[in-house]
Amino acid sequence: MTSLTTTAGPRSVAVLTLLAIDGVLCAIASAFFLPLRLGSVPFPISALIAGLVNAALVWAGLHWTTSPRVAALPLWTWLLTVGLMTLGGPGDDLIFGGAGVLEFAALLLIVLGTLPPAAVLRAYVKRGLG
């Protein structure tokens, strides 16, 4: 098992840390824009945008480390943040919820947010680089 410190120099560690923080920020932004509507119709476009941003973050991570596990750090921080947001907050406030499509908002966000970066990682590993 390779560790971050053995595969990357200090600059790589700094960049991968910033990418992980970007994963957290992407999760927060995508969750809060998830209930976006076009007129009266729910339009959860932020879930798809989150997937594309996560794919870009993982792709960038692959340029700073040879380990797909470490390159997936932005995706892991994104998933952790979304998971934490599914829990009730102070006063049992909820971020996810609603009627219709928004009833499955957390599931939709997780599926659409993880498929594109998973495809990037799979393509990297299939090429035999990881």
Structure in a nutshell:
By secondary structure, this protein is mainly alpha-helical.
Overall form: elongated
Helix content: 55-70%
Strand content: under 5%
- Distance linking N and C termini: 12 Å
Q: Report the strand count.
A: 2
Average pLDDT: 88
Please summarize the sheet with the most strands: 2 strands, antiparallel
- Alpha plus pi helix count: 6
Would you give an account of this structure?
The protein has one domain. A two-stranded antiparallel sheet has the order 1-2. By secondary structure, it is mainly alpha-helical. It has helices at residues 4-7, 10-33, 45-62, 68-71, 73-85, 105-126; strands at residues 37-38, 41-42.
Please outline the helices and strands.
Blueprint: H1 4-7, H2 10-33, E1 37-38, E2 41-42, H3 45-62, H4 68-71, H5 73-85, H6 105-126
Antiparallel strand pairs: 1-2
Essential attributes:
130 residues, 6 helices, 2 strands, elongated, mainly alpha
